[in-house]
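quick one if you have a minute, typing this from the bus. theres a chain ive been looking at and ive put its sequence and its fold in token form underneath. please have a look and point out which stretches look like helix strand or loop to you. anything you notice is useful, everything is just below.

***
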Amino acid sequence: MSGPASSPAPVGVGLVGLGTIGTGVVKLMQRNFDVMRERLGFPLRMVRVADLDTTRDRGVDLSGIRFDADAAGLVDDPAVDIVVELIGGYDAARRFIHRAIESGKHVVTANKALLALHGKEIFDAAARKGVDVAFEASVGGGIPILRVLREGLAANRILSLHGIINGTTNYILTEMEQSGAAFETVLKRAQDLGYAEVDPTFDVDGIDAAHKLTLLASMAFGAELSFKEVPTEGIRGITPLEFESAAEFGYRIKLLGIAKASPEADGVERIEARVHPTMIPSESLLAKVDGAMNAIAVHGDAVGPTLFYGAGAGEMPTASAVVADLMEIAREIRRGRAGRVAPLSYLPESLRPRPVVPLGEIEARCYLRFTALDRPGVLARITGVLGDHGIGIESVIQKGRGRAGESVPVVMLTDVAREEAVRRSLALIDALPELTAPTCLVRIEEEL
């Protein structure tokens, strides 16, 4: 008679970086240990954690887990089957990930900045060693958007993607719109509440959103794409007047990451990929996404328009994505085969260079805010320059009247125009003696 069946051996996890997200990963794996085991059929266990700070109390039980500052030792530990990298940044994270791959360890990371810049070399190294690199938490926090692109919409040609993919900027824009306060005031409020970093550059200048869009566009269009190729603008130039004007025209302002399929040029397949403040119709679903929330609208040729909404950051939403990746890889370890789905959705040999359409070639309607002395003939000179460059005017509003020597804002909506022509026009207009400040330009997206 055979004895009782032995319990299946656990899959061991090693975590490098016990910050906010790392702490959430430990909490979630402990809290939902039984649920995860019931879904996997075997235990997934945190066996080792490494962090430079080994004294700070994170409010999580680390008993039974080896905890020290030896990240290299963690990577080399045979009890660790999957390495989770949550230290962020470039150099150290890159070294640890490559070391893990060369040691035959699978990797889970939330490091969108690293993957947006060095993703190809990391994925190529993983393919050579037959291990997986999973990164669901790098875009959209708890929204499983990367899994959607890799699997849920795998039968579709993706036509377009529009994303609110940075919670900090969405919070700031929402607060500016609702309170009428200036950017600097709301930024300070966001920093006090912990929504914005002490140095908010990556968020407010659009860099974080561009990192995420690089990954999304690569997966949506099978493109070999680097973050450096994505035209990027932030939200520093947006004033309360933009929100007032947008409302009058039926729009709201969001920082969007936009990617679209583009017609071939000279036989070369291209894509649009850009990050910038955008006016979108107030009745659209994306326009209703407020505060620190994220949302990504994806349009596939078969499924049509879809929208994915949720918390784009935070300890537990992001931990949810990290642990989901761990579970997926753990299943593959048990099956004895990695690479069930290519990390960027397309097989590596199918990825190809897809040049990004230069921003100057983009055609769109635009919102323009001029700051000009209130003198006769100024508006005619402005519209004359625009007309000389083939740019039609849809609407014009002058905000108030200025006393002698004072400037007033004049806002316009243009017809669809080529950005290169708009930029040439603005260079001439801003050089007029009656213009007292650089013109603010916000692009308009109608079809989301």
User: Anything to note?
Assistant: The radius of gyration is 25 Å. The chain has three domains: 11-144+316-352, 145-310, 359-444. The mean pLDDT is 94. The CA atoms of residues 151 and 327 lie 16 Å apart.
